[in-house]
Amino acid sequence: MKDKKILVCDDDQGILEMLELLLEEDGYQVVLEPNSVNALRSIERESPDIVLLDIWMPMISGDQILRSLRDNPKVSSTPVLMYSASTDGKNIAESCGADSYISKPFDLAVMLEEIERLLQE
């Protein structure tokens, strides 16, 4: 179960490092993508089992990335967990087809539970 690959796309280096530590400690392979412009290419190249995606990023926002991902037959079925500090984050995540949503600051235990739940579906 734990040989799953998770791609994390976030422009915040601190969050990337924290999630990388947490997820690797939990036995996952982790791929970090700090640049939203490269996110789709990275997802195609890496074929992750799940994508963690911040909504608010410079250049291309998480909802734009997710809409493009859902339109791409190669990766359209990849589960995506979105997160944001925005009060409107849940609505944005639902409207663009996220499989799950967590608000920031997130509880790491809740994040891990959501990842496990999505990987089992």
Write structural notes for this entry.
This protein is α/β, with parallel strands linked by helices and 121 residues long. The protein has one domain: Response regulator (Rossmann fold, 3-Layer(aba) Sandwich), CATH 3.40.50.2300. It has a five-stranded parallel beta sheet with strand order 2-1-3-4-5, with helices on both faces. The two termini are 12 Å apart. The relative contact order is 0.17. The model has no long low-confidence stretch (mean pLDDT 95).
Structure summarized in a few sentences:
The chain is α/β, with parallel strands linked by helices and 121 residues long. The protein has helices spanning 13-25, 39-46, 62-70, 89-95, 108-120; strands at 5-9, 29-33, 50-54, 80-84, 100-103.
The CATH architecture would be: 3-Layer(aba) Sandwich
Please write the CATH class name: Alpha Beta
Tell me the Rg in angstroms: 13 Å
N-to-C CA distance: 12 Å
Low-confidence stretches: none
Tell me the overall shape.
globular
- The helix-and-strand class reads alpha/beta
CATH homology group: Response regulator
Sketch the major β-sheet. 5 strands, parallel
Specify the number of helices. Answer: 5
Specify the helix fraction band.
40-55%
Question: How much beta, percentage-wise?
Answer: 15-25%
Mean pLDDT: 95
Number of E-type strands: 5
Trace the largest sheet across and list its strands: 2-1-3-4-5
SSE order, one letter for each helix or strand: EHEHEHEHEH
